[in-house]
UniProtKB/TrEMBL annotation:
<dbReference type="InterPro" id="IPR027417">
    <property type="entry name" value="P-loop_NTPase"/>
</dbReference>
<keyword id="KW-0808">Transferase</keyword>
<dbReference type="InterPro" id="IPR008921">
    <property type="entry name" value="DNA_pol3_clamp-load_cplx_C"/>
</dbReference>
<dbReference type="GO" id="GO:0006261">
    <property type="term" value="P:DNA-templated DNA replication"/>
</dbReference>
<dbReference type="InterPro" id="IPR005790">
    <property type="entry name" value="DNA_polIII_delta"/>
</dbReference>
<keyword id="KW-0235">DNA replication</keyword>
<dbReference type="GO" id="GO:0003887">
    <property type="term" value="F:DNA-directed DNA polymerase activity"/>
</dbReference>
<keyword id="KW-0548">Nucleotidyltransferase</keyword>
<protein>
    <recommendedName>
        <fullName>DNA-directed DNA polymerase</fullName>
        <ecNumber>2.7.7.7</ecNumber>
    </recommendedName>
</protein>
<comment type="similarity">
    <text>Belongs to the DNA polymerase HolA subunit family.</text>
</comment>
<keyword id="KW-0239">DNA-directed DNA polymerase</keyword>
<dbReference type="GO" id="GO:0003677">
    <property type="term" value="F:DNA binding"/>
</dbReference>
<dbReference type="GO" id="GO:0009360">
    <property type="term" value="C:DNA polymerase III complex"/>
</dbReference>
Amino acid sequence: MKLNARDASGYFARPDPDKTGLLIYGADGMRIALKRQEVIAALVGPKGEEEMRLSRMPAAEIRRDPAMLSDAIKAVGFFPGPRVVFVEDATEAQAPAILPALEDWQPGDAQVVITAGQLKPTSKLRKFFEGHKNAYAAAIYDNPPTRAEIEAELSRAGLRNLPQESLRDLSTLAMALDPGDFRQTLEKLVLYKHGDESPVIPEDIAAVAPATTEAEIDEMLDIVAEAKTGEIGPLMQRLRAQGVQPVSLCIGMMRHFRTLYAVAAAPGGPAEGIGRVRPPIFGPRRDLVLRQAQNWGAPKLQDALTAITETDLALRSAAQTAPQMALVERTLIRLAMMARR
């Protein structure tokens, strides 16, 4: 039987131990691994591997010795409880060795969990699981987890006080990170809030999110966008000491002011624009960028982008003799003064 995306999420959390097996396939190996870990843990429990109720085998080995899968499925465990045979990285080439063991499955045998990459609709493995009355096939797509999945994941870890604003920021973060990094971020958030019963707030999420390598440049751009001209010089000295290049600052300026323009010029207004920005902006920075875009307005941001483009062309010009960092600093001050108008 085929599991659609919504049903698959529920089944991975609460799988049926009496089924013949489950095929999980798709293009993203990390997402498949996370789902496989979830369903196996739900089937055998935290002590399943310790109690030898979980058998692992690469699909390539089954092709060389087809009997090993049948033996593992029929084996009687010493400890009571559901048993699982996990077959990893199956391909269509191993189907002739895998399917006979599944066809011979009887109630009381170990459930078989198989992971695979992309499988065509004509795949023998897919057709077997999709057409079987006592087995499931689930395709894993390259979609970030939904709010419901994030909430369920944190709830299982004991973190339940999640306001909608925090769920929104976590959903945004899930779109920006790969699945493994996002799972680590959720784990860090659970540890960060351990013993703290207060609601999860955007500042908590920002505290555990992966730090950007451009944090110093972002600080400078925020100073400029908020017209804090007096703070440009000291921070500029710090950036020079850290070896930040003028071109990097110019690229950062262009990126930041293009983002502000995209937010300010959105047809539905800045509140709609901030939700359409890619990569997504989350946490306290979301409110900061939204405020900056509203304060500047689209016409003034167009002038700012023109000034940045002129600076970029000057940096690239072979005839330019002025110090490059001085050119960039002058543009930063000019933009900060522009913000005051």
